[in-house]
């Protein structure tokens, strides 16, 4: 990750209920952040297979059971904790993880410049 990238506020922590996803754009990079089992995780919103955005509707990234991130185009499934593709044409690839942190009730991410 580029060390010159700065931290950007993307939402308030209370906006993230369990497995709720918040979309954002920082430095023209689309991304999303979610809270799962009490842990924040953020990714670049691009499928490693086709480079397209993953969600099928605004804020809709998870499968029906809310157990995996799912690509709307070809159904690939990614683990929520690390973004590893476990099913689909990009199996073995992973989503790009973004650094996250909480500060004063806000969720911040660091996106490469």
Structure description:
The chain has 113 residues and is an all-beta fold. The chain has one domain (7-110): Rieske Iron-sulfur Protein. Helices cover 0% and strands 42% of the residues. It has strands at residues 7-12, 21-26, 29-36, 39-44, 68-70, 77-79, 85-87, 97-103, 106-110. The strands form 2 sheets. It has a 6-stranded antiparallel β-sheet, with no helix packed on it. Strands 5-6-7 form a 3-stranded antiparallel β-sheet, with no helix packed on it. The radius of gyration is 13 Å and the shape is globular. It starts with 6 loop residues before the first strand and ends with a strand.
Please describe the biggest sheet, giving its number of strands, its sense, and whether it closes into a barrel: 6 strands, antiparallel
Provide a count of the helices: 0
CATH superfamily: Rieske [2Fe-2S] iron-sulphur domain
The share of residues in extended strands comes to 35-45%
Q: How many structural domains in the coordinates?
A: 1
In total, how many beta strands? 9
Average pLDDT taken over every residue: 90
- The ordered H/E elements are EEEEEEEEE
Structural class: mainly beta
Separation of termini? 9 Å
What is the oligomer described by this structure?
single chain
Q: Do you know the CATH architecture?
A: 3-layer Sandwich
Strand order of the largest sheet: 1-9-8-4-3-2
Which fold name fills CATH's third level, the topology?
Rieske Iron-sulfur Protein
> In percent, how helical is the residue content?
under 10%
What's the CATH first level?
Mainly Beta
- Note poorly predicted spans: none
């Amino acid at each position: 990750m580029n060390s010159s990238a700065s931290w950007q506020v993307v939402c308030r922590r209370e906006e993230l209920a369990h497995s709720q996803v918040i979309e954002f754009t920082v430095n023209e990079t689309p991304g999303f952040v979610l809270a799962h089992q009490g842990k924040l995780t953020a990714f670049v919103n691009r499928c490693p297979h086709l480079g397209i955005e993953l969600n099928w509707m605004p804020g809709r990234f998870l499968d029906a059971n809310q157990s995996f991130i799912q690509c709307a185009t070809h159904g690939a499934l990614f683990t929520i904790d690390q973004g590893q593709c476990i099913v689909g044409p990009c199996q073995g690839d992973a989503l790009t993880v973004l650094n996250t942190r909480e500060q004063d009730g806000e969720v911040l991410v660091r996106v490469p410049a």
